[in-house]
Amino acid sequence: MQFIPVFLIFLALTLLNNTVSSQTHRDSLFVSKVSGNLTDYYSSSLSTNALIYNGKMFQDYFPFEPGNHVFFLANEFTPGTVIYDGFLYKKVDLKYDLVADQLIMQHPSFGMGIILNPKYVSSFTLSNHTFLRIPDNPANIKNQGQYYDALYQGQVSLVVKRIKKISEVVGQDRVKRTVSAQNKYYLYKDSVYTQVTNKKTLLKVLGNNLSKSQQFIRANKLNFRKDKENSMLSLVKFYDSISR
User: Could you tell me if residue 25 is inside a domain?
Assistant: First the structure.
C-alpha cells in the first residue's frame, strides 16, 4: 500500500478552493479509566489543523472475495470514541484494520480515512468493545501488535489480540484474495501477561481456587472448545469475584 500525507491533500484542496471561490495497565492497561478527567471533543467541530488529523491517508486494499474484509466486525466506518493525545474524542467514525493493526478515522469534512498515529492513542471504543494500546510491549506479547481488546479488567484482566491475515491464490484468470481471522488471549496477573490458549493453560495461570474454578466450569457447562472466548471470560470474572 502507498500512503499520501494528509496535509498534502488538504493543501491541494485549499488551493483549489481558493482558485474557485477566491478565498497512552494498571500502568498502561487501565489508561481508559482516566477518561473522566479528559476534555471531550467532537470531531465535527474541530479545526482541520488539530493533531488528530495529522496522519497518513488510508488507501484501501485490493479487492477480496465477497464477504472478506480486513477490519474488525464491519467494513464500514462505525461511530466510536478515541482517547488521543490525552483528549477524549466522541462521535468519531472509526475502522480498525486487523491486518496492519492500525486505527482509521474518517475525516468529517473530506470523507477520507486517516491512520491515527498509535503513539498518541491510549484507547478507543468500537461496537461496544474497548481496545487499549499497550505501549511498553512486554516481552511475552512482543511483536503481537499494540491494540488489544479488553474483555475484562479487574484484579486479573483478560485481553485478546485480534488478527487477520490475507491469503492469495493465483488462478488462470485472476488472483483470489481471502482473509482469515485469529485471536490470541492474554491474562494479566501479578503484573505479568501470559498467553492462555485453552482451559488447561488458563487454570494454570489463575493458580488459586482451582477446585472452585473447576466446579464453576462444570456447573455452568462452559465449553472451551466450542466457545473459547465466552468461557474464558466467564471463568476470569468468577475467579476475580472470589479472589477479592
Answer: yes
Q: How far apart are CA 115 and CA 122, in angstroms?
A: 15
Same domain as 57, residue 169: yes
Q: Which of 170, 193, 216 marks a domain boundary?
A: 193
Residue of 115, 98, 236 whose CA lies nearest to 180: 98
Q: How far apart are CA 160 and CA 162, in angstroms?
A: 6
Lowest mean pLDDT among 92-96, 122-126, 136-140, 175-179: 136-140
**Residue 176 reports pLDDT greater than 70:** yes
The residue written with cell numbers 482451582 in the block is 210
Q: Measured between alpha carbons, how far is 41 from 38 in angstroms, rounded to an integer?
A: 9
- Please answer whether residues 202 and 235 qualify as being in contact, where contact means their C-beta atoms are separated by less than 8 angstroms: yes
Q: Which three cell numbers stand for residue 237?
A: 470474572
C-alpha cell at 146: 499494540
SS3 124: strand
Q: What radius of gyration, in Å, describes the C-alpha atoms of the chain?
A: 21
pTM tops 0.90: no
Q: At what angle do helices 228-242 and 199-206 cross, to 10 degrees?
A: 20
86 near 56, Cβ under 8 Å? Answer: no
Contact in structure between 77 and 93 (CB atoms under 8 Å): yes
